[in-house]
Design a protein that fits this description.
Layout: E1 6-7, E2 10-11, H1 25-38, H2 43-56, H3 63-66, E3 68-75, E4 90-94, E5 99-106, E6 109-120, E7 125-137, E8 140-146, E9 152-159, E10 163-168, E11 173-178
Antiparallel strand pairs: 1-2, 3-4, 3-11, 4-5, 5-6, 6-7, 7-8, 7-9, 9-10, 10-11
């Protein structure tokens, strides 16, 4: 039934074999803002809201829309639903000059995976690879370790001044909140 296809008031997109979505883009975005803030929206509902926004997207995401600092909030690539809200604070930083950083803090440690990205306007995708790790401890450092780059890609289908949504090359959906 249509009610069984709903989670948190949003129907699952037709691409998942459920009823066509009935939520508006504004409703989906409001739900994702709540998810980013409170981290209390069930994982399947977050994914459905993200895919609802994809259905409403009219224009491809442009490079300038993703440049900046983003808090990585949610990733459905993680199979354990309780860990889909990223348990440590992580920021992805896409710079104008093509540098990409994934920064996080754990206790007295600050970590930054650093590399380069290229944005494909035709795919609205950022292909990136981290080739070094910078570590700081209690303000000391950074100590830099070279690492084997592992290519990754975010294919963005929604970005505005508050939120971005992307398909991850690791599988699944990623929700980012602008810092």
């Amino acid at each position: 039934s249509a009610s069984s296809a709903r989670a948190g008031g949003l129907a699952a997109p037709a691409s998942q074999g459920h009823a066509v979505c009935q939520a508006t883009a504004a409703e989906a975005k409001a739900l994702l803002l709540q998810a980013a803030e409170a981290k209390d929206v069930p994982g399947p509902t977050v994914v459905n809201a993200m895919l609802n926004l994809q259905e409403f997207a009219r224009e491809p995401v442009q490079r300038g829309q993703i440049v900046g600092k983003w808090h990585l909030v949610f990733s459905s690539t993680i199979s354990v639903e309780q860990l889909q809200y990223i348990p440590v604070y992580e920021e992805a930083v896409f710079s104008e000059d093509g540098e990409v950083r994934l920064q996080s803090e754990v206790g007295p440690f600050r970590f930054a995976f650093v590399g380069q990205y290229e944005f494909s306007p035709a795919e609205a995708a950022a292909a990136f690879a981290y080739d070094r790790l910078e570590v700081r401890l209690l303000g000391w450092g950074p100590w830099t370790l070279e690492r084997e780059p592992k290519p990754r890609k975010y294919s963005f289908y929604f970005a505005d001044p508050d939120l971005a949504c992307a398909h991850s090359s690791g599988g699944g959906e990623t929700l980012l909140r602008r810092v």
